[in-house]
UniProtKB/TrEMBL annotation:
CDD domains: MPP_Mre11_N (cd00840)
Phylogenetic classification of the source organism: Bacteria, Bacillati, Actinomycetota, Actinomycetes, Micrococcales
Gene: sbcD
Coiled-coil features, chain-numbered ranges: none
Job of this protein: SbcCD cleaves DNA hairpin structures. These structures can inhibit DNA replication and are intermediates in certain DNA recombination reactions. The complex acts as a 3'->5' double strand exonuclease that can open hairpins. It also has a 5' single-strand endonuclease activity.
Keywords carried by this UniProt record: DNA recombination, DNA replication, Endonuclease, Exonuclease, Hydrolase, Nuclease
Source organism: Curtobacterium caseinilyticum
GO molecular function: exonuclease activity
Name this polypeptide is given: Nuclease SbcCD subunit D
Domain of life from the UniProt record: Bacteria
Subunit structure: Heterodimer of SbcC and SbcD.
PANTHER family cross-referenced by the UniProt entry: COMPONENT OF ATP-DEPENDENT DSDNA EXONUCLEASE, NUCLEASE SBCCD SUBUNIT D
Entry similarity comment: Belongs to the SbcD family.
The Calcineurin-like phosphoesterase domain, residue ranges: 1-221
Keyword Nuclease: yes
Keyword Nuclease carried by entry: yes
Length: 387
């Protein structure tokens, strides 16, 4: 069986204010063409289909059209991620035709999508993003005895249900589609923090015994552990300058009759390169960086004195510049203050504020309070997404 593994589309996302929807549409066209050209049997989308719980209308239309086109030649299985609203993404899942299956319910993790090829049956189990505080009761083996408050506990409980189902299907090959941060993988700087109790990871061993594990959440394509059995497909586009060196792709997996896998990474289209430029205004105006004029650029102008009309002069040479700052090369002390960005650790930002306001860094007890407050805010946000 040939499987195409993708995820983390984040439809509706922007990059430092730049609209990505047109580039995401180009990816969707590429995806449909790849599925058709390579005779893919199954497409799995491992969460974060949308960038936020209530996505733009154009993003919803794009997903609808893409699923319609994909399902003409392949079965499609989706699971929600931490950015999606499971309730909204899963709306109508019960009445969709067999070629499009949205596995959004935590309580349904033990019920697979069943497919077959000439070598026999394949069971595809979906594990949506499981926030421990929202699922530790629903996944508990004993009513009123909640699981531990951790990602390891809830994903482990979900996998126990998966294994229990597979035990009733001898000879069936297994695929698990999950949205989680698995230990041993390398994060990027644009994934949302999912810590609970200060921990955001699960052990790779929780997926032992599964033929192929299609992961979502981390944006860099990578394997977890030895071999290709557990993989992140990564995001199809770069969503931060920290991802500018990643080679984005989709993962084509051939699942053999004995359950072994072979993997090919198919590069996705690069709509516009991301480039960092750190130089003087004279160097920019000399044309030294002309080759990067068509790229999305983050520019740091290093002149000692702030150049006149700096922004306009930079934009004249870099029309697609997304960030322009003045960072004098001879004044490193100006960089002492840590900038707060969308990818900053919220607990560390709060700790910096405590240090600024009180003159002393927070101790372990203070940090525990800050962490608890942050996690409560994240829980409230996810609870609202589920409504």
């Amino acid at each position: 069986m040939r499987i195409l593994h993708t995820g983390d589309w984040h439809l509706g996302r922007t990059l430092l204010g730049a609209d990505l929807l047109g580039h995401q549409a180009a990816f969707c066209d590429f995806l449909v063409e790849t599925v058709r050209a390579r005779s893919v049997d199954l497409v799995v989308v491992a969460g974060d289909v949308f960038d936020r719980a209530i996505p733009p209308v154009d993003a919803v239309r794009m997903l609808s059209l893409t699923l319609e086109r994909l399902s003409e030649t392949a079965t499609v299985v989706l699971t929600p991620g931490n950015h999606d609203s499971a309730a909204r993404l899963g709306f109508g899942a019960g009445v969709m035709h067999d070629r499009v299956r949205i596995l959004a319910e935590p309580g349904g993790v033990g019920t697979p999508v069943l497919l077959a090829d000439e070598a026999g049956p394949v069971a595809v189990h979906g594990i949506p993003y499981l926030h421990p505080d929202l699922t530790r009761y629903a996944l508990a083996a004993v009513p009123d005895e909640p699981l531990a408050r951790s990602h390891q506990a809830v994903v482990g409980a979900a996998m126990e249900r998966v294994r229990a189902d597979l035990a009733t299907r001898p000879g069936t090959r297994s695929v698990v589609v999950a949205h989680a941060f698995v230990g041993g993988a390398e994060p990027s700087d644009s994934e949302q923090d999912i810590r609970v109790g200060g921990v955001d990871m699960v052990a790779a061993s929780v997926f032992d015994g599964i033929d192929y594990v299609a992961l979502g959440h981390l944006h860099g394509p990578q394997r977890v552990g030895p071999g290709d059995r557990i993989r992140y497909a990564g995001s199809p586009l770069a969503f931060s300058f920290g991802e500018r060196h990643q080679r984005k792709s989709v993962t084509v997996v051939d699942l053999a009759p004995d359950g072994s896998v072979t993997v090919e990474l198919v590069p996705t289209p690069v709509p516009r390169r991301l480039v960092d430029v750190r130089t003087t205004i004279d160097a920019i105006e000399s044309g030294a960086h002309h080759a990067d004029a068509d790229a999305w650029v983050r520019v740091a102008v290093t002149d000692t004195v702030h150049p006149e009309r700096m922004y306009a002069r930079v934009k004249a040479h870099f029309p697609h510049a997304l960030a322009i700052t003045h960072e004098p090369a001879d004044r490193p002390e100006r960089q002492a203050a840590r900038a707060v960005t969308a990818t900053s650790d919220p607990v560390e930002v709060a700790a910096d504020f405590v240090a600024f306001a009180t003159g002393a860094a927070p101790d372990d007890d203070d940090r525990a309070v800050l962490t608890e407050a942050y996690e409560a805010a994240v829980l409230a946000m996810h609870d609202d997404r589920g409504r």
